[in-house]
Each structure stands twice: as structure tokens, then as C-alpha cells.
Amino acid sequence: MYISKSMSIKSIVEKYPETIPVFTNIGFKGLDNPAVLQKLEEQNITLEKAMMIKKEDVDAFIPMLQQAIASVEREDEGVKEASLMGLLPCPVRIPLLEGFEKYLAENKDIKVKYELKAAYSGLGWIKDEVIDKNDIDKLADMFISAGFDLFFDKDLMGKFKEQGIFKDMTGIEKYNSDFDNENIHLKDPHGDYSMIGVVPAIFIVNKTVLNGREVPRSWADLLKPEFKGQIIVSNPGSASTGYLLLSTMVQMRGEKEGIQYMKALNGQVKQYTKSGEAPSRSAALGECAVGITFLHNGIRLMKQGYTNIHLSVPKDGTSYEVGNPESVFDGDIDGFIDAGIRWRKQQESAE
User: If DSSP codes are grouped into helix, strand and coil, which group holds residue 68?
Assistant: First the structure.
């Protein structure tokens, strides 16, 4: 049971008809009439707006609704199907999904409906299916995202986050000291979400293609003549990895010099890929000397037996990806949430 200020009167009454007398007591009439409810829906009358109209305190009114709902006995619905939705970083989506499906197969008491798309597909589908409807009942029980936009943009999940409907249930008390110190604190002080990993942008270098040339160790090195036509990077317009590169240069050099650097780098680039993982694979296969991507892509390839690659972290600094921030809708599916978090913490899942 969850009632929020942003829920429409229609959605509350249809789901919990026992709340009709509570509304009637403050002057709402005809809520048992579908036509009246539809008219309120068309006028986008949320609980918050309704309380403003009636000059009632919405924070005091919500407990009255909850009391009415709690007074009604409901049949045991058995095992509840939970929902999981979000965007996964391109390189880890397939192995994560495989691991998740294996976990569900081994834990048949957990019923989950999930939709986890690649980050490059963008947020459009979540906006269409959930956010634009502005209906908390449409929210999934858990959200996973490859970045922060989904959770913090007030036009996206930010408008729900501000209502306090999410919470961090991972139980992670302290992050790695590199990200929890006097200069930086990545742990959410409000307890709305958690982060699972932080991964730097690096160069994956094919030592065979390099053929004795020095390994690039800075962003400036990539502009050397010997790397012309030897660099593959993802498109900033389609992949978060490519966008992060653009953001990195602007943050490190300032907007003017950052854009100038990107123009210079463009002259060195052999190909722009749609996904952020592709440059790492291209470098490993010898299609280029340098692939710009995230560290975990290189580590994964080395574990797969690609001994011909070298991982180089830019000595002049780099940006990092915050891997899979998670927000959990504060619903009544703690069993699934607990199991899902246990899976996310498993070594196999992390790797």
C-alpha cells in the first residue's frame, strides 16, 4: 500500500474504493461514478491538487486514506511479481542478464518482470511508458541506471525522487575511501539510491598494432601523428562513453579548449561506434591501435584471453562512470528486493 501526493484521484479510488467515504467527508461527491473519475483524470487532478482545492493538509490527509485502506481485509495474492526496469552499460548488459536469468532459475520463488535495455537506447522508452504518465502506480519496484540522469533530472525520475518514494536497501554502509573522503562523497546522504561501481575511462592499446611505438599515456599523446587513423571511440550522440569523453575534455580544459581538442581528435579517429563497448573489442581484434572505453571492458577482454592488449590510464586525468546507481521503490516486495540485492552483490555478478 502506497499513497503519494502525485497519484491521481482516479487511480486511488479505482485501486482502493474504500477511500471514497474519506474523500466524501471533505466534500468530494460522485467518486463512485466512473464518468466523474474520468473527468478528474482528464483535468489531471492529483491528490495534491485536490487538497489544494479543498484547502486541506495533504500530509495529514494521506494517513486517513491509509487507515481506510488498512481496514479492509484482502485475500492473500500468493507470490507477488515484482518489476525491474532500467538501462545497463553496453558491455555488461548481456553478461548481467545471463547471470540474472540464471539466478532467477535457481530461485523459483522469486517472480520478476524485468526490462533492462542497453544504455545507448536512451531514456525515451522509460519516459513514454512511465515518466510522462506521472503515475506512481506505473513505477517499477527497482530501477537500475547506467548514469545519473534518470534519477536526478526533475523531468525524469527526479520528480518522484523528491517525494521520497525511493530508498537504498543494499545495506552498503561505506564506499571505497577513494570515493568517500574529505574531498568527495558519492554515497547518497538521503538514502534514496546506491552505487555499485565506479569505472575510469582509459585507452585499450593493441601492442601488436602499436608495433614498437610508445603506448599513449595522456590525452595529448593521442594527437601524435603516429595515431592518425588508429583510434576508435564511441559516438557522443549514441553512447554514454563517447559523451563522457566530450564531458571530460570540457571539464579538464574548459569549454573552448575542450571543443578544440575534440576537433583535433576527430582528425585522428578511424571510426565512431554506436556502443561504448565496441572500441575495446576493435582494439583487441587489431582493427585499431587504440580504443577509448572504460576500464572494465579491458579487464573483461584480458580475462577472455586477449594478451595482446595493454590498459593505459591517462596520466593527465580522466573521468569515470558511476556504474549502475540503483533506486528501489519503497513498496511491499522486500523479499524480492533483498534477493535482487544479494544477486547484485555476488562476486560473479560484480565481475
Answer: helix
